[in-house]
Amino acid sequence: MPEGGSTVGQLSPDGRWRWDGTSWQPATPATVTRSDPGWLKVELRNTATWLTVACALIVGLLADQWLRVGAFGLAASLTVAIIALSLIFAGRLMTRESRVLAAAAVLFGAWLMVRGSPWLLWPDLAMSFTLLGLAASLSVRGSLMDLGIAELMARSVHGAMHGFAGAAFSFRPLGRVRMRLQVVAPVARGLLIAAPIALLVAGLLAAADPVFASFFNLNFDLGRLMTDLAFVAAGSLVAAGLLRLAAAEPLARVDGPMWRLGSTEGLVVLSVLDAIFAAFAVAQAMAATGAAGDALRAAGVTYADYARSGFFQLIWVAGITAVLLILFSRITGLTERTTRRAFLVLAQIAIGLTLLIVFVAFRRLSLYEEAYGFTMLRLYSHIFAVWIAIVFILLAAETAGAFPRRRWLVGATSLSAMALLLALNLANPEAIVVNLNIDHARFTHKMDPQYLAELSSDATPTLLANRSLVDQSIGRDISQVACAGSRSYSASLAAFNWSDAAAATARREGC
């Protein structure tokens, strides 16, 4: 192989050999070292202190009081509040936004001892711990109003990793006293040797003397003890995981994947979606003008039944469309101005047509309620329809380029959900359902007392206060349902719930 004129580092014509100055060597590609993304690392900026240990144990003890009563009440609210305070002081939240998020968690946690409806309690619990997780994750860097979907998922994985490692972190200070405990090792060994001897002697003395035996008649419930230990451990582990997350090295900005779907594919998907929605809009126009009478008769459906059906399916369509629009707006490669403009137009058309679908669903559900009355599921379907419409309006603004330097859609959607849940807690949705059903019964002279019996203590005061507005027979059914519960309230302090107490007071005064 000729070597004249070859320079060091030169590749052979086939690219398989490299000249090192004296001979041709195989040309192996350079090894590229790729580090794991930051959200897969579990480095810490702070170490655990004795305050960390104390906070985890206090949360565990409060969680035990909450879980042992098996009800939402004062202990549940205090558990959330102490976790938030632990994050602020032991977790050392650095940013104002993270402290505000922790305070918001306390606000939603407070409703756990105010409301009694599971339609509020479980969302409040989920919102409280979501806000606590966000506060811990954003303790040093980041903002809810500049949080992309990819970063939200990355922070979720990052938080889960730190959560599982929380116990080893929070209780690390206990390991520092292990060396000091070596001085008591001889005492411990002596106690172990003395234990069987003491048991034998005490057993013989107890058999000989009933008075001495009475000293050992302890009321000890091993099952209760093990359950309490499990509850304490569960609460402490949750607090420990959040404290470790707050002490983690802050995450840098996480962008979405570099891979992009072709612009043609993305535009085709939106075009098909718009075509389907446009056909649905035409169907609504035909039904409204009576042009769809033959189709309804062929399906064996009256117009009244048609107008009151399909609302849940329509809400599902709206939710799926929101996910699709958000997804394709992130993964579609729009490098040219014409494709960006076409995508914008098609996305705005899809949003407009989806808002039409949401309106149709809302109207159909209203007609159904006018005929059959109101339930919590139907009320929440109304509320979800309004909220999903707000999300589409926000999505339309983001797609149009509002505030392009920030990734604000996730944050704005989260704030709208928080505001909605807070409004529901203030308004008491079960009382709203009761009032709507009473107004409905005044005109139809019908009410379903069996459904009213399924409502929680949130509904009891409103039922008793408004039963005189309906027919006497319906009023008697309401009284029977509302007065079925206890008229006295003697729950433990840990289980105290304002809604249950108010319901008992209302029964005592009105039954």
Quaternary: single chain
Largest sheet: 2 strands, antiparallel
Q: What would the principal axes of the Cα set say about the shape?
A: flat
The level of helicity is 55-70%
Number of strands: 2
Structural class: mainly alpha
Through-space gap between termini: 108 Å
Poorly predicted parts: none
- Compressed to H and E, one letter per element, the order equals EEHHHHHHHHHHHHHHHHHHHHH
The averaged pLDDT comes out at 85
- Portion in beta strands: under 5%
As a whole number of angstroms, the C-alpha radius of gyration is 33 Å
- The number of helices is 21
Strand order of the largest sheet: 1-2
Protein architecture, described:
The chain is an all-alpha fold and 511 residues long. It contains 21 helices and 2 strands. The protein has helices spanning 50-69, 74-89, 96-110, 118-137, 149-164, 166-170, 185-208, 210-214, 222-246, 263-289, 293-298, 303-307, 311-331, 337-372, 376-399, 409-427, 429-444, 449-452, 460-466, 472-482, 498-510; strands spanning 17-19, 24-26. It has a two-stranded antiparallel ribbon. A hairpin with a 4-residue loop joins strand 1 (17-19) and strand 2 (24-26). Helix 13 runs parallel beside helix 15. The protein is flat. The protein starts with 16 loop residues before the first strand and ends with a helix.
